[in-house]
Specification:
By secondary structure, the chain is mainly α. 78% of the residues lie in helices and 0% in strands.
């Protein structure tokens, strides 16, 4: 008991130092999130007992430098370079002007949410959707005087629609493979829960959008400058790897920017360098979070959660609640919804088989619960990416994340009221 709680205590240190202190101070910039993670990481290394200091640091470094982490760092670097060079050459402004020209003010929130849902469903990844749409959302917010955190949250919420539902999403593939069911069956169960939520949120954004006014004078659209974003969106939708997508977009911003005279070759290099440097904090946060969470796992924190939460299951409803809670809590401890499903998948299958939970419903709960939590934690890759591209604090986005919140509530209700009946 004490060992398990001690293993999880670095998370408590982070939450108290960052969230609680910031709430008391009334300012989320008082305590930099990097400092909070550094303090929690040092605490985690100190409290890891039974092994030499070098071994503890090795465990931390292993978590900070996994292949998946390196991939995220590459995406951060490319996204920073692309976003800033696109901004300098005028691509973002041109795309924003096109959106303001095509959509009336009251349709901007709903239109952005629909775009995020469609793109994420097509490409199966929330990160790719956020990279493509967040700069446009931030630009629209500035032009219309709308809250930047709200506009960013619209994109983040819509990005998890596809992350949760798409046939090519890694969470969908892992959830179905661990539970031994077909992708189409899991999609069918998920649709009963997800589609009504998405519709309610879409209507909500349409109503909220009534107060948004488009600027009186929208600048003429320079269509040639839209090409980089258009190519990024189209290649992403057709399933190209996100790193390849960003590389193509980056090359196009350079070529078009030089042709239209937005910058010369050295100006392009400079804009890329500034964008990469701007992603430095995100890379540091991601690295320290990975190391911190690896130490928690090494010290038995995740095993403690699993054993403690599966001890009191008495019914099918209790089994489903335990599965949803387990994957959500493990996601908090790993900041990766795919890893959370892989970690919990085996035990979820055993719980489901023992208490007669339909494996299709079990896969749906695993995927949806992990996406809900991943869409809310401020130190997840998606939130950090969105905050970095919009140049805001990740915590400022959280109050506006209506879709993940509503999806979490719908998932809980689907367990409590045994919905959909056919799979419960």
């Amino acid at each position: 008991m004490k060992k398990g709680l001690l293993a999880l205590s670095p998370l408590a240190v982070f939450i108290i130092l960052y969230l609680v202190t910031s709430i008391i101070a009334g300012d989320f910039y008082k305590v930099p999130i990097t400092v909070a993670f550094m303090a929690a990481s040092i605490y985690a290394v100190i409290t890891t007992g039974g092994v030499p200091l070098k071994k503890r640091i090795d465990v931390f470094s292993r978590g900070a430098g996994t292949g998946q982490m390196m991939l995220m760092f590459w995406i951060f670097v490319l996204a920073g370079a692309f976003a800033n060079s696109a901004k300098v050459m005028g691509s973002i402004d041109a795309t924003v002007n096109l959106a303001l020209t095509l959509l009336p003010g009251n349709m901007l929130l709903a239109g952005l949410f629909l775009a995020a849902c469609f793109i994420s469903l097509s490409i199966g990844t929330s990160v790719g959707t956020i990279v493509a749409l967040t700069p446009i959302a931030a630009g629209i917010a500035e032009q219309t005087g709308t809250s930047i955190p709200l506009m960013t949250a619209v994109v983040v919420g819509g990005s998890f629609f596809g992350d949760n539902l798409s046939f090519i999403s890694d969470t969908t593939i892992v959830a179905t493979s661990t539970q031994g069911c077909r992708l189409s069956d899991k999609f069918r169960v998920n649709s009963f829960i997800v589609m009504p939520v998405a519709l309610v949120i879409l209507i909500t954004y349409f109503i909220m959008g009534n107060g948004i006014q488009s600027p009186q004078h929208v600048a003429d659209v320079e269509y040639v400058k839209i090409i980089p974003y258009l190519v990024v969106l189209v290649t992403a939708i057709f399933g190209m790897n996100v790193m390849a997508v960003l590389t193509v977009g980056l090359l196009l911003t350079g070529v078009i920017g030089i042709i239209v005279g937005a910058f010369d070759v050295f100006g392009w290099f400079s804009s890329m360098g500034e964008g990469i440097t701007g992603m430095g904090e995100l890379i540091i946060i991601t690295m320290m979070a990975g190391g911190l969470l690896e130490l928690i796992k090494h010290n038995g924190g995740i095993d403690y959660i699993i054993s403690h939460m599966t001890r009191h299951i008495r019914s099918k409803r209790g089994a489903e609640l335990s599965i949803g809670s387990l994957v959500a809590i493990v996601d908090v401890c790993t900041a990766n919804n795919t890893v959370a499903i892989i970690t919990v998948g085996g035990i979820a299958k055993q719980i489901g088989d023992r208490y007669g939970v339909d494996n299709r419903k079990c896969a749906s709960i695993l995927d949806t619960s992990s996406c809900v939590m991943q869409g809310l934690i401020p130190y997840g890759a998606q939130m950090l990416m969105a905050a970095g591209l919009a140049q805001i604090n990740p915590v400022s986005i959280t109050p506006y994340l209506y879709y993940p919140m509503a999806l979490g509530l719908a998932t809980l209700l689907s367990i409590l009221i045994r919905y959909p009946k056919r799979y419960s």
